[in-house]
């Protein structure tokens, strides 16, 4: 339901509106308590790039902390890095994820145990292996509540009989796959000692020493259910993926390593010390290839088309190599239904990248300055602890009065729930409610969500309302998407980089269409990953020239298109870049600016000039201050936007050639400076706040 009333009736609530915004910019510090908030223990998450990533939430858990002063945790975070669940843990954690049977699980403790949570984050059960030491690399709880576990079995062996200098009483860490029924009784076990030989290991592995007193020659790193009668395991130190009959335990086939049975087509590299495997719906196999034993160490994701009859593995894609990141351990990949790939990079930076199917970046996120997560997954998720009656509030077109929507929250638990805070990004949305407030057990609570876009410069604004219930060691939150419109009679503008007439453009450059507001197709269709390429005309020489192959991505705020050539451009050539067709803003006003650019290339990493105003920005990266010096016209105004196009800070009426800005209250991450000059020119530059 939505009501409206005159703006002058909400003067008394303006303080609350601005407090809400301030709290967000200050990392959601609890407005009620002066004590340290639970969220102060949450890692700083930097969004390095965001181009319409897939819906869902990331499941992360601290397996390694950078500082001993920080706290271990499990968390569920959104595409903005905001936690909708966060719990402080006493020890490091692995494999926090949603299982096929709908429950949440994670592994922690010594000895290790698997903890099972329901959708309200209540502990339901603990699971561990029967008779063996649990291997926390992976575990699966399927729909019938059977549990697939990995484990170790210790045995002693005289290695001197097979290796010169071997230990006569070496401890061998054999691997076990154990399946438990719903009552946690063993119904199946598979032992490596029955099927593998110690010398199946890749003896070049830096993690295996065959003359040491303890040897893990397999390192099971993943398990994947292949069918009702078989499963796959990743034998990392053997460079092998093995398919096993879950009824008999017999090996069906072996792929990679010394006992390889497959012919690899179009792939001389194969995979080296792989960490994760995924059987895709089309039958293909997705592998995270660590690349450990290659001279040029860098990790990648590899997709193979398998023919299990002829034993062939045809390379479909090898991606993510361009990042030049080597993951020694704890890397992995997950493919979503829409074809996007989530790649997580262990303790490297960035922590994760979500790729579109064409290899462009949908989201790049980093929290490596605080911690690393052994595995990361992404899934649709919503807690049942308390729930809003709607997921999206569309306020429609603003009529110059304050719109109020009465949002109803329902408490589904047996205890009262305290809502400690409500946060959002934009000043155009706010709430009318004193915080904190309680929702009685199995009761409801109503409060007003308001929309008043008096200073909105564009025709549409989107936001996320995060409703928080924080306690001493835990956060539970729900989110509601917000969208509002307002009249806007000014046509959107487009700036193309490199701009028209630019010379000496690097041949490895990326290209950009930057709009001053969100845009869409003229038929009111949103621009997305799947159709953004239709808007781009990229030619050699001129509009009649040869097509240049490229991939493209649209920013989450739909005001920036990134164009990445499939191959580096040719040296000393002329290129033609144009907007192909017409776009409009969300008030149906068509683009009114020039839509073409012709530029020339030069060597890689050359500095190219364009017709932007000359301006110096330093230091960059920065921590507390940013200095801006104009070498031409005096500066009129400076605005700082985050990567989602949301205004973070505005410095109007500068009217000098030099300005020093205090940015110490702005969160770490990538931002855009929009600088307007008194002669009418403008410039947009990237800055990194550390």
Q: Describe it for me?
A:
The chain has 690 residues and is mainly β. Among the domains are: 2-24 and 384-485, Immunoglobulin-like (Sandwich), CATH 2.60.40.10; 262-379, TolB, C-terminal domain (Neuraminidase), CATH 2.120.10; 494-602, Sandwich (Immunoglobulin-like), CATH 2.60.40; 615-689, Immunoglobulin-like, CATH 2.60.40. 2% of the residues lie in helices and 47% in strands. The protein contains one helix and 56 strands. Strands 3, 4, 5, 28, 29, 31, 34, 38 and 39 form a nine-stranded mixed β-sheet that branches. Strands 1, 30, 32, 35 and 37 form a five-stranded antiparallel β-sheet that branches. Strands 2-27-26-25-24 form a five-stranded antiparallel β-sheet, with no helix packed on it. The radius of gyration is 28 Å and the shape is globular.
Short description:
The protein is mostly beta strands and 690 residues long. Helices cover 2% and strands 47% of the residues. Strands 3, 4, 5, 28, 29, 31, 34, 38 and 39 form a nine-stranded mixed sheet that branches.
Relevant terms:
Immunoglobulin-like, Neuraminidase, 9-stranded mixed β-sheet, 1 helix
- Named at the architecture level, the CATH assignment of one domain is Sandwich
Helix/sheet category? mainly beta
Roughly what is the average pLDDT, rounded to an integer?
90
% residues in beta strands: over 45%
Number of helices: 1
Helix content: under 10%
**What is the makeup of the main sheet?**
9 strands, mixed
What's the CATH H-level homologous superfamily of one domain?
Immunoglobulins
**What is the distance, rounded to the nearest whole angstrom, between the alpha carbons of the first and last residues?**
43 Å
């Amino acid at each position: 339901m939505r009501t409206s009333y005159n703006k002058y009736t909400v003067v008394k609530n303006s303080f609350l509106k601005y407090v809400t915004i301030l709290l967000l910019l200050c990392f959601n510090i609890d407005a009620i308590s002066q004590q340290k908030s639970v969220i102060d223990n949450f890692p700083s998450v930097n969004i390095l790039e965001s181009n319409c990533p897939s819906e869902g939430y990331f499941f992360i858990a601290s397996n390694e902390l950078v500082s001993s002063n920080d706290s271990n945790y499990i968390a569920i975070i959104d595409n903005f890095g905001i936690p909708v669940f966060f719990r402080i843990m006493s020890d490091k954690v692995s494999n926090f994820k949603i299982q096929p049977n709908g429950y949440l699980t994670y592994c922690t403790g010594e000895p290790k145990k698997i903890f099972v949570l329901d959708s309200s984050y209540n502990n339901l059960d603990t699971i561990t292996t029967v008779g063996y030491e649990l291997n926390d690399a992976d575990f699966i709880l399927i729909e019938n509540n059977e549990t697939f576990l990995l484990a170790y079995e210790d045995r002693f062996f005289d290695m001197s009989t097979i290796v010169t200098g071997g230990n006569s009483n070496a401890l061998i860490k054999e691997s076990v796959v154990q399946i438990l029924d719903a009552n946690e009784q063993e119904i199946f076990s598979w032992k490596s000692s029955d099927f593998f030989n110690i010398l199946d290991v890749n003896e070049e592995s830096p993690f295996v020493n065959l003359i040491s007193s303890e040897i893990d020659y397999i390192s099971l790193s993943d398990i994947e259910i292949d069918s009702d009668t078989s499963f796959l395991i990743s034998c990392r130190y053997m460079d092998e993926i093995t398919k096993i009959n879950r009824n008999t335990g017999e090996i069906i086939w072996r792929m990679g390593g010394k006992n390889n049975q497959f012919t690899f087509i179009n792939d001389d590299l194969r995979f080296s010390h792989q960490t994760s495997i995924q059987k895709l719906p089309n039958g293909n196999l997705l592998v995270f290839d660590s690349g450990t034993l290659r001279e040029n160490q860098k990790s990648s994701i590899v997709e193979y088309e398998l023919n299990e009859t002829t034993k062939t593995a045809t390379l479909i894609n090898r991606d993510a190599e361009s990042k030049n990141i080597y993951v020694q351990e704890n890397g992995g990949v997950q493919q979503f239904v829409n074809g996007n790939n989530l790649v997580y990079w262990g303790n490297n930076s960035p922590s994760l990248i979500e790729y579109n199917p064409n290899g462009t970046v949908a989201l790049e996120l980093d929290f490596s300055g605080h911690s690393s997560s052994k595995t990361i997954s992404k899934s649709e998720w919503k807690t049942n602890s308390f729930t809003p009656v709607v997921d999206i509030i569309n306020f429609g077109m603003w009529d110059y009065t304050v719109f109020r929507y009465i949002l109803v929250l329902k408490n589904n638990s047996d205890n009262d729930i305290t809502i400690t805070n409500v946060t959002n990004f934009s000043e155009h949305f706010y709430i009318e409610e004193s915080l904190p407030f309680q929702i009685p057990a199995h009761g409801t609570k109503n409060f007003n969500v308001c929309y008043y876009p008096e200073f909105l410069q564009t025709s549409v604004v989107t936001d996320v309302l995060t409703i928080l219930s924080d306690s001493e060691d835990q956060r539970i939150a729900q989110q509601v998407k917000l969208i509002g419109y307002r009249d806007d009679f000014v046509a959107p503008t487009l700036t193309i980089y490199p701009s028209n007439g630019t010379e000496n453009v690097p041949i490895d450059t990326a290209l950009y269409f930057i709009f001053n507001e969100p845009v869409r197709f003229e038929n009111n269709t949103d621009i997305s990953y799947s159709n953004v390429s239709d808007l781009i005309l990229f030619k050699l020489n001129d509009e009649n020239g040869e097509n240049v192959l490229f991939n493209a991505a649209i920013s989450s705020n739909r005001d920036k298109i990134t164009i990445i050539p499939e191959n580096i451009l040719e040296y000393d050539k002329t290129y033609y870049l144009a907007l192909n067709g017409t776009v409009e803003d969300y008030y149906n006003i068509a683009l009114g600016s020039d839509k073409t650019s012709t530029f020339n290339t030069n060597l890689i990493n050359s500095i190219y000039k364009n017709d932007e105003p000359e301006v110096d920005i330093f230091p960059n990266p920065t921590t507390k201050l940013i200095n801006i010096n104009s070498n031409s016209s005096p500066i009129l105004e400076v605005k700082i936007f985050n990567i989602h196009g949301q205004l973070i800070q505005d410095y109007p009426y500068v009217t000098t050639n030099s300005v020093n800005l205090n940015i110490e209250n702005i969160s770490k991450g990538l931002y855009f400076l929009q600088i307007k000059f008194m002669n009418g020119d403008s410039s947009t530059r990237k800055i990194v706040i550390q």
